Amino acid sequence: MSSAPIINKTLEFSDLRSPQIQPTVASLHRWLWNWLLRGERLAVNGHVKRRLYIRKHKMWEYARGLALTGASAPVRRTKNSMTVLEVGGAMTAPVFYLASQGDRVVCLDIDEKLTAQTNGTARRRGLHVDARTTNLVDEDPSSEDLGVEGGFDRAYSFCVIEHIPPPGQQTAARRIAGLLKPGGQMCVTFDYGEHAPTEAPLKDAAQVQEICQAVGLPLMVNDSFVDTGTRYRLDRKYPDRPYTFGSLFFCRPQ
């Protein structure tokens, strides 16, 4: 009998070729080209421009996040639209990809310019996206405050918490989890490793455990975080500071 897959783990590029993830990679590529042909732009790390591709490490977090929560087009098992909370990703691919499937996406991002651009793009494309400058470190909204009755089906935060100094990142993680409906799923990714160049990366397994405790929900599939030990030069500005990405998947019990 094969063992259960490990999904709460650090970055391995081979994951992108797995049968579980590769169809979502292809789906994101197709969507991106359609988006580009429509003349639209996307943000990565707050920089908005026309993008011809999604870099492999960003694809790892996007494709796995969407595939392993059953939200990407190739793996979705329901024809019903989902309510999605996206935190910190204004103008990024996941917001518009999910909205392009008919999902209702609420995006929380403290950058006023990016939230305005997100709303403008969504209106132009006829997508159901509501971008707000709600700050989950300082504010504790209910899902009803955000326009969604009874909680969100899915919540995502792709490489955002490392930009929030503790204890704010634990506060934000706990509040994201509190906005899920029963059965809702949550994916959080983050810069990981002692040499990661961001403001407050998770440097070791103990800090990852602090996030898990703050979330207060059971991890999906494997019940502990696995660090493969591999580090990469992911930031071109800091080639001498190898680090990696980590991922955590949670589910609120029914």
List keywords for this structure.
two-stranded antiparallel sheet; Rossmann fold; alpha/beta; 19% strand; 254 residues
How is the CATH topology named? Rossmann fold
* Strand residues, percent: 15-25%
The overall strand count is 8
| CATH homologous superfamily annotation | Vaccinia Virus protein VP39
CATH C-level label: Alpha Beta
The SS-based structural class is: alpha/beta
Number of domains: 1
Give the radius of gyration.
17 Å
Largest sheet: 6 strands, mixed
Strand order of the largest sheet: 5-4-3-6-7-8
Residues in helix, %: 25-40%
* Low-confidence sequence ranges: none
Order of helices and strands: HEEHEHEHEEHEHE
* Shape category: globular
On the 0 to 100 scale, the average pLDDT is: 96
Count of runs of 4 or more consecutive helical residues: 6
Terminal CA distance reads: 28 Å
Oligomeric status of the shown chains? single chain
Please state the second-level CATH architecture.
Answer: 3-Layer(aba) Sandwich
How would you sum up this structure, described in words?
With 254 residues, this protein is an alpha/beta fold. The protein has one domain: Rossmann fold (3-Layer(aba) Sandwich). It is 28% helix and 19% strand. Strands 5-4-3-6-7-8 form a 6-stranded mixed β-sheet. Strand 4, helix 4 and strand 5 form a beta-alpha-beta unit. Helix 5 crosses helix 6.
